[in-house]
Amino acid sequence: MKRFIIAFSFFVVLISIIYNNSAALKSLFQSSSLLVTTLLTSTTTAKITSPSPNTQTPPHMLKDTLVKKTITTAVNMTKPLLHAKITPHRSSARGHGDHGWLNTYHSFSFADWYNPRFSSFGALRVLNEDRVAPNSGFPTHPHSNFEIFSYILSGELTHRDSMLKKGAEGGQSDRFFRMRRGDVQFTTGGTGIAHSEFNEHTKDPVHFLQIWAIPWARGLTPRYHTHHFADEDKRKAFVPILSPLKAGVEATAAEEKVAEPAIEGTIPIHADFVMAAGIIAPGAVFEWRVGAGVTQTLKRKVYVHVPMTKGGKSRVRIDEREDAILQEGDGAFIDAVQAGDKLSVESIGEVEAEVVVLDTA
């Protein structure tokens, strides 16, 4: 009992000291934490920068240098997705047709090219990389029950609704749009539309990706959307371009008209599907969060494509894997991933690499 009273008295005194000196103790704790953080930062910085004895960083550049290296180090710490199955789809395995006015590559079965191994991937049905000669193009043709979008890589492509006559279009609109680098034109085929896509430029070819996705419902109301996505943003990180219609499968007519996407600033698509694009500098690593935080489906598939934009000088490595290095024109099937997984894409070529990500349920 005597020991208990002594221990209890000591405890009361200790509480009293803490209460009356809490500010001082807090200050002491913060000072100690700052000292430890400074020591750790100094050690880490020394390991990262490793300056040569004859090299000195000017004081005004020191802060920026440390920030840049810290960001790079953080990105490089992305852990490989050991559970992911990554299968390269080489450019040489794509369907190819050179029709003079059209030079086209098919990542998936299309037109008269069929390969049972490449029929679809989740909601992704078509990925064509097309080059169309000047004063040439696709005359008026119908579409129905597909989500169809064109991603312009270079040149100029004119979209014209079938009801609009050449010379009487007025200004740029969803029914008439002259697209250039960075523009994305999107069509919900739904119950049926007809349009033309033409390169009306007199000298330069147009290079673009045409992509089709399977919608979550048939018989939708046809609709067009056209947005621009700047290269300067794509050089910072993957930029979301398409995301699911926020109202979902049960959207009302009013919600369809508003057409609010799940990710602000993107084009809404009638599918559990996200598209993004990035331009990655040599040595840099971009990270893609599977599902982009908006999917309702845990199990995902991701298709990565490297367009042929740099004369064969760009290359990327996916998930730090030596057997997942892609050249221009290559793609990769990434399966057995889940929403929230972080997928790394590293640029390892001579020049920056343009990369398109197609994320589907």
What can be said about the biggest beta sheet?
7 strands, mixed
Radius of gyration: 27 Å
Query: Total number of helical segments?
Result: 5
Q: Given the helix and strand composition, which structural class is it?
A: alpha+beta
**Secondary-structure element sequence?**
HHHEEEEEEEEEEEEHEHEEEEEEEEE
Separation of the first and last Cα atoms: 68 Å
Number of strands: 22
Kindly report the average pLDDT value: 82
Q: Uncertain runs with pLDDT below 50, 5 residues or more?
A: 8-76
Sequence of strands across the biggest β-sheet: 1-20-17-22-15-13-14
As a percent range, the share of helical residues equals 10-25%
Shape: globular
The percentage of residues in β strands lies in 35-45%
Produce a short descriptive summary.
The protein has 361 residues and is an alpha+beta fold.
Could you give the topology of this structure?
Elements: H1 2-20, H2 22-49, H3 59-76, E1 85-89, E2 95-98, E3 102-106, E4 124-132, E5 136-143, E6 147-154, E7 157-161, E8 176-179, E9 183-188, E10 193-199, E11 206-213, E12 223-228, H4 231-234, E13 239-244, H5 253-258, E14 267-269, E15 273-280, E16 285-289, E17 299-305, E18 315-318, E19 325-327, E20 331-338, E21 342-347, E22 353-360
Parallel strand pairs: 13-14
Antiparallel strand pairs: 1-20, 2-3, 3-4, 4-11, 5-10, 6-9, 6-11, 7-8, 7-10, 9-12, 13-15, 15-22, 16-21, 17-20, 17-22, 18-19, 18-21
